Amino acid sequence: MSMQTLPQSVDHIQEEKMSVQQESGLDTCLKFVIDPQTIGLLESEFTQEVLTLKASHIMPVPNKPSCILGILSRRRRVYWAIDLAMLLGLQPLDQNIGLYEVILTSAQQLSLALIVPKILGVVHIPNGSFEQNISLVPNTLRPYLKGYISEKGGFSYLLKAENIVQSTILHS
């Protein structure tokens, strides 16, 4: 089985987050591409692990919503593999890609494997810099959004991990 974990472990991210927050009032987030026009952020406290795996390692499951790609097994746990862009009502993943970028996330004792096109790395964002006015945000993103920041002519959306794992689309 060919799985790769990014060099920075989640434990290291958690330790780094705590020390950076204490020193300078920064939030540590995982930054990733959701679709070609959308950048996402997820607070590091909800990120268990980030890895790359072959698309063939996801076992399809019939009669599930189309955003559920199937299941995957990691460290004796089974995760629902979710096309995050499709769940959020955005442009779905390209079906012809051979490798998936995976964010194993956990919130309120629920876990998911969020499949995204590209993981950009860990970023530190000053506390309080997220915009809360979501009137300009696409309607499909609003239930999953905690805030956003404007950067270099675009937006990065801070997602609510709790709302993603509890999405009614996934539990129907």
- Report the major sheet: 6 strands, mixed
- How many alpha or pi helices? 3
Structural classification: mainly beta
Instruction: Provide the β-strand percentage band.
Output: over 45%
How are the strands of the largest sheet arranged?
A: 1-4-7-8-6-5
Question: Which residues form runs of ≥5 with pLDDT under 50?
Answer: 1-10, 16-23
What percent of residues adopt helix (DSSP H or I)? Answer: 10-25%
Radius of gyration, whole Å: 16 Å
Which H/E pattern describes the elements? EHEEEEEHEEEEEH
Report the span from N to C terminus: 31 Å
Strand tally is 11
**Mean pLDDT score:** 84
Shape: globular
Which terms would index this structure?
172 residues; mainly beta; 5-stranded mixed β-sheet; 11 strands; 46% strand; disordered N terminus
What does this structure look like?
By secondary structure, this protein is mainly beta. It is 14% helix and 46% strand. The termini are far apart. It has 3 helices and 11 strands. Mean pLDDT is 84; it is low at 1-10 and 16-23. The radius of gyration is 16 Å and the shape is globular. The strands form 2 sheets. The protein has a 6-stranded mixed beta sheet. It has a 5-stranded mixed beta sheet with strand order 9-2-3-11-10. β10 and β11 form a beta hairpin.
